[in-house]
Amino acid sequence: MKIKNLLMFFVLLAITGSVAFFSQNSDINKNLTSTIKAVEPNATYGPKGAEIILRIGNGGAGPTCVLEALSEDFIESKKFNIQIAWIQTISRLTLENLKEKNIDVSFTYEAEPELQAIQEGWASDRTLVFNDHFLIVGPKNNPAGILPNDSVSIAFQKIAQHGAFFSRNDLSGTNQRERDIWEIVKLKPWEGRVKWYVAAQAFPVDALKKADNENLYTLTDRGTILAIHEDLKNTAVYIQDDEMLMNRCHAMLQDKPNKYAKEFLDYLQSSRAQALIAKYAGKNKKDCIDCCPLFTSAIEDQFLERNCLQRLGLMSNCP
After folding, report:
1. What percentage of the chain carries pLDDT values higher than 90?
2. DSSP labels, 31-80
3. Phi (first) and psi of residue 194, to 5 degrees
4. Could you tell me which residue, 157 or 29, shows the higher pLDDT?
5. What does the domain layout of the chain look like in residue ranges?
6. What is the pTM of this model?
7. Three-state DSSP class for 29?
8. Do domains 35-128+257-295 and 133-245+303-311 have the same CATH topology?
């Protein structure tokens, strides 16, 4: 009985301790879903009442609504009476969902595990769909003193010395790229209690809003910042033109995909879908001439021009 009572004490201590921790860190608690492998749809696209035939897994592109635009255009072009579901998870969990056949199509941003999935035989048809672009962004007063011509590594060194950085800390594609850059400058701030390194699990939109609200630098992607730029008050873009910041999105299918998945992948490679991606500026901006496209098409493996970001007031004014 004494052992049983002792065990119950530690269980209660763990529970109450967890409650106290999360009550004091509500923002972190709110964003913990980024490392939970979701299997239920965040949204469905297509005619109401139609059967869900395809399930797409992806993290950051879904909130920009480009997956919705592509899904609905595919359904319309094929005259299908079906629905397509989007399940939001970071890339590594999206790949797990594909392996476990919880989804039919994965959209991910990590070449090494994608190629490993093909090699192991549980994924097929790896195809480049579009290019996103990482950006180093931060507070408009630029306490780290980042200059337009700084390299990515120099910018990170300056942030470590004179600024504060927000990390998603969820092993997402963005988080992995961030860690790759820190390792280049021979730092691993996630391993210690470094005051200037603020870490909390968050999806891209939540992470960018947190950085904006708390005067932090962070690594984000172009699609996300353009999708929510009207909600940002204190964020400027400092570095975008560097190969380390390319963020290529590949689609993959199950090892034995159904016919709808194959047709959807064929559609994604079509000139129709690639033209949609090249002009896509966000939901309700289908024909917007002066808007900034969120992505580049699969054949345009380059960064988009700065003028677009400057016109929106997002580029820094540093000398």
Report:
1. 68
2. HGGGGS---S-SEEESSTT-EEEEEEEESSTGGGTHHHHHHHHHHHHHT-
3. -95, 125
4. 157
5. 2-34, 35-128+257-295, 133-245+303-311
6. 0.80
7. helix
8. yes
Q: Tell me the CB-side half-sphere exposure of residue 111, using CA atoms within 13 A.
A: 6
Token pair listed for 96: 């797990």
Burial of 85 (0-12, 13-18, 19+ CB in 10 A): buried
Domain 35-128+257-295: which CATH number of 3.40.1280.10, 3.30.230.10, 1.20.120.1730, 3.40.190.10: 3.40.190.10
| Six token digits for residue 46 | 């297509």
CATH number of 133-245+303-311: 3.40.190.10
Span 62-72, average pLDDT: 95
Contact 123, 114 (CB under 8 A): yes
* Contacts of 202-207 spanning 24+ positions with Cβ under 8 A: 202/31, 202/34, 202/168, 202/170, 203/31, 203/33, 203/34, 203/59, 203/60, 203/63, 203/88, 203/168, 204/59, 204/60, 204/63, 204/168, 204/174, 205/63, 206/30, 206/31, 207/31, 207/166, 207/168, 207/174
Helix (H, G, I), strand (E, B) or coil at 137: strand
Structure tokens that stand for 19 in this block = 């409650």
Provide the 3-class DSSP secondary structure of residue 143. coil
The larger pLDDT score, comparing residue 129 to residue 317, is at: 129
Question: Is 292 within 8 Å of 228 (Cβ atoms)?
Answer: no
Cα separation, 10 vs 8, in Å, equals: 5
Q: Of 67, 59, 129, 64, whose CA–CA distance to 281 is shortest?
A: 64
Whole-number pLDDT of residue 289: 58
Q: Which of 159-168, 219-228, 248-257 has the lowest mean pLDDT?
A: 219-228
Q: CB of 72 within 8 A of CB of 46?
A: yes
